Structures are given as structure tokens and as C-alpha cells.
Sequence to fold (321 residues):
Amino acid sequence: MRILVTGGAGFIASNLTPRLLGAGHEVVAVDNLQLGTRAHIRPFLGNPQYTFWKLDLLDLPKVDELFTTHKPDLVWHLAANSDISFGTTYTDFDLKGGTLVTYNILESMRKHDVKRIVFSSSGAVYGEPLMLPTPEDYGPLWPISLYAASKLACEALISAFCFNYDMQAWIYRFGNIVGPNPTHGVSFDFVKKLLKDPRRLEILGDGTQTKPYVYVEDCIDGMAFGFQHAQDRVNCFNLAVEDWTSVRTIAEVTVATMGLSNVEFAFTGGSRGWTGDVPKVRLDTGKLTRLGWKPRLTSDEAIVQTADAIVAQMRAGWGKG
Ligand SMILES: NC(=O)c1ccc[n+]([C@@H]2O[C@H](COP(=O)([O-])OP(=O)(O)OC[C@H]3O[C@@H](n4cnc5c(N)ncnc54)[C@H](O)[C@@H]3O)[C@@H](O)[C@H]2O)c1
Fold:
């Protein structure tokens, strides 16, 4: 297949791309390099099966040109602002970078008769649900961040386009995805801070926030598995692990991985890391596991492997460009 990967220079896409190329697919990647980096795509640039477009997906005529040039068989739509706190400061950021970008992709798919889309949503769409672990059919959905509101709006647009224009979608509501090549996230943040000051680590919130952390390879396996095994018009799955890890544990693992000791943990306080943060997340993964998918790593194992990978990458000077 020819697969359009949006957000192609980002964290998840840079782990997905070698898998798609390795399976014999052609990859057309697009990114505005707002958060993604050239370092993430450098390994693929000489591959004749790989094309990169630096493009802001808010530019509909350019997106149309992209579809005219490379009409894809499938869109793997990962582009979005992935920094929740940023969207709190600039209130139209997720509206544009998430919702309108997704509209542009769907409209171009409609126009160019592209029928299938895989979409990265988030467990954040549940807001602070009364039911934990939260299943996909939980409602009503009241997001508490503009990022999550945008993801929910994207899901709604995808559903409407699917039913109006004979398209098919696979929507994944992720837990926290971790692994090598991060552009953001708690482990990345801790390593960066500790490289700067190995004696003191600022931790957002009180450290008791607990969430399921999914290793990026498991995330990609889960998405591919759902795509192969679910054939409804709109297929929606939680993609997470059943256990969880606290932010304090992540800090301890990071400190140990870096070989540090006597680090002062400076908590900023409060139960949330930032406005719109959901401090306790549990996603019911039964729908995908009943189809036969199983993550390889637990949440704690994913955090340990991620700390190893990030510390090695940062020490090698990666992440600077
Ligand atoms: N990583 C997680 O824990 C997590 C959890 C839930 C959902 N998600 C979603 O998964 C997707 C991928 O996440 P990620 O962690 O790889 O994030 P990421 O920020 O590393 O990747 C997203 C990429 O999209 C690009 N991008 C943003 N706006 C764009 C635009 N207008 N035009 C072109 N490119 C644009 C960015 O430059 C970035 O490279 C995102 O949609 C994110 O919201 C991620």
C-alpha cells in the first residue's frame, strides 16, 4: 500500500515508519516540524519507498496537492498538537492543529476517493469518568482540556465523513505512549531536567498521578491488529495496558537509570500536573484484547525500557536537531 503518515517526524510516526517500510509499504510522510524533528526522519530519507513533505496541514490547497501527487491507499493520521498545556494557553491551538487539520485530511480523502483512515485519539476524551476502567461505550463524554475536546471533535468528524462518504475508520484512544524518539512527555522531561541539574528534579503535581504507559511498539502492534481484525465502518478501541505507573515511580526509575543519587524531588503540588490533566486514568482494554491483541510490556516495564532508550539517546547527543 501507499500510506500517508501525518505527523511523520513525530514520536509515534518515527517508530511506525520503519515498520511500514519493512512490511513493503510505500510511505509518504508529512509534518510541519512544529514538534517533530529532522533527526527522526533522517534514517528514511535515502529510501526510494519513502517521501517526506514539509507541510502545514492547515493549508488545504497544499493538502489537496499532496493527495493529487500521491493519492494514498490509507491515511495514518497522527499529526496534532500533542502538548496539552500549550492548548490551555492558546485556546485556538487544538482547534486548528487538531480539529481543522483533521477536517482538511477528511475533505481531501473525500475529494480524492481515499477510503480508509487510522486515527490517534486519546483516553483524554473521557474527561474524568465515573467508571474506571473506562470502556469505549462510556458516556457522556465531557473532556476537561481543549486538547481532548479537539480529539472528540475529530472523532465526530471522522464518523460523519465515514457515514456520508462510504469511508472506514479505526480510531484508537491511547493511554500514555512511551518509547524512543520522544518529542514530549514525562520521561523526556525528567531526563532533560536531570541533565541540566542532577541534584534537583521539579515534578509537576504531587507525584501520585497514575496512568497506563504503553510501549510504542505495543501501540503500533495494537493499531495494526485492530486494522486487520475489525471491519465495522467506524472501529473505536482503547489502546492501553491494564496496569499503571505513578509519576513518582517514573522519577525514581529515571534517576536510577541515569546513575544518580540523592536527587531532591521538588513537587509543584496539587493532584494535577497541569490544568486539564486527568490524574487517574484507567482504560478498559477488553474490546481489543478480546479480538486477540495483547501488549508485550506492562506499564512499569514500558517506563524502564523508555528511560533506558531516552537516556542513551540524549547522551549520544540526539534531540538537538
Ligand atoms: N504520545 C502519547 O502519549 C499520545 C497519547 C494520546 C494521543 N496521542 C496522539 O498521537 C499522535 C502522535 O503523537 P506523538 O506522541 O507522536 O506526538 P508528536 O508531537 O511527537 O507527533 C505529532 C507530529 O505532528 C506534527 N504536526 C502538528 N501539527 C501539524 C500540522 N498542522 N501540520 C503538519 N504536522 C503537524 C508535529 O510537528 C509532530 O511531529 C498525536 O495526534 C497525539 O495527539 C499521543
